[in-house]
Write a structure and sequence with these properties.
With 315 residues, the protein is an alpha+beta fold. It has helices at residues 4-69, 75-102, 107-141, 145-148, 152-165, 167-180; strands at 185-193, 199-201, 204-205, 212-219, 228-237, 253-257, 260-264, 266-272, 277-284, 294-302, 305-314. It folds into two domains: 9-121; 183-314, Immunoglobulin-like (Sandwich). The chain has a five-stranded mixed beta sheet. A four-stranded antiparallel beta sheet has the order 2-1-4-9, with no helix packed on it.
Length: 315
């Protein structure tokens, strides 16, 4: 039978062991908590850095349209700059993928940044297509630029003569005329319209002040294009690539592009006579809605062709 002193010693030993276990557990969970807290703070900083990077890429993307329209810059230089932007976007996408793999970052914010990166990639792809079109035009129009500036009747007669002598040359000429006759929309401007009808032209607008928007651009002179009534579709896309539409006010609807239905923001008809023509189209946001913050992309379509692009910023 155990003595009272032995029982007390045993109880003390048990209490000491329990105390050690409790302190060890507290130390373990404390270290784990502060480690995870530091990791979360590091991830938050990483996401903020990625958000700043995507904003910088979006601003650079806006500037590139002006570079693309500048006729004094060589095509090779434009192509090189676009390649650099492609590398920057790919690097950013890789950084997003690495952040997403960690699993502790805010997945919703990652998804938003991925959507913005995807929108940037889409416009870089469109710029690539534009450059390829310019390269094709330059290659085919260099030898025939003098001929293409003559009257339509002379072009038709030359085409008939070429058909009689060389069917292959005729096919090339037909392709050249088709490309050259596509209208081009350039020199965009954007104006905020107040309730009193006053217009403020700018490239950046405040979200809370922008309700009525006026989009203006120039249809360039084209002596090859057929004159007559032309229907123009204006597509205004949010930073995430979704179309901006207001069906209630009758501004928006749908049209067919590349065998698919596409939402247009507004449309207008003009009487084109081969000379340069300024076109302005009003647009009003639907009630209880506002423009999203970030770059707003504007595309102009005519007769199944994308004929011009530009952008402005909402902050």
């Amino acid at each position: 039978m155990a003595t009272p002193d032995t029982s007390k010693n045993t109880s003390r030993i048990i209490l000491v062991i329990v105390g050690i276990l409790v302190l060890s557990a507290l130390a373990y969970f404390g270290i784990k908590y502060f480690t995870e807290k530091a990791e979360n703070e590091k991830n938050i900083v990483q996401i903020e850095n990625l958000e700043n990077e995507i904003l910088e890429l979006e601003e650079q993307n806006l500037d590139f349209q002006a570079t693309l329209d500048d006729k004094n810059i060589e095509l090779a230089e434009k192509e090189q700059e676009l390649s650099q932007k492609q590398d920057q976007i790919q690097k950013y996408i890789n950084q997003l993928a690495a952040a997403k793999k960690k699993g502790r970052v805010n997945q919703k914010r990652i998804a938003e940044l991925e959507a913005r990166a995807s929108s940037l990639q889409k416009f870089v792809d469109q710029y690539k297509n534009q450059i390829e079109e310019l390269k094709a035009e330059n290659a085919m129009l260099t030898a025939q630029v003098d001929t293409l500036r003559t009257s339509a009747s002379r072009l038709i007669q030359e085409k008939e003569d070429l058909v009689a002598t060389n069917e292959s040359t005729s096919e090339e000429l037909e392709k050249t005329i088709k490309i050259a006759s596509v209208l081009k929309a350039r020199e965009f401007s954007f104006a905020q319209v107040s309730k009193k009808g006053k217009e403020k032209v700018a490239s950046e607008f405040r979200r809370n002040q922008l309700k009525d928007l006026k989009i203006c651009f120039n249809l360039q002179e084209n002596l090859i294009a057929d004159p007559g009534e032309r229907e123009l579709y204006i597509v205004l896309e949010n930073p995430d690539g979704s179309p901006n539409a207001n069906y209630d006010e009758g501004f928006s609807g749908k049209f067919t592009f590349e065998d698919q239905e596409k939402v247009y923001t507004a449309k207008t008809s003009v009487n084109y006579n081969r000379l340069a023509l300024e076109v302005c189209v009003p647009y009003r946001m639907a009630d209880n809605t506002k423009f999203d913050k970030g770059p707003q992309y504007v595309s102009i379509y005519n007769e199944g062709n994308l004929i011009g692009q530009a952008a402005f910023k909402v902050k």
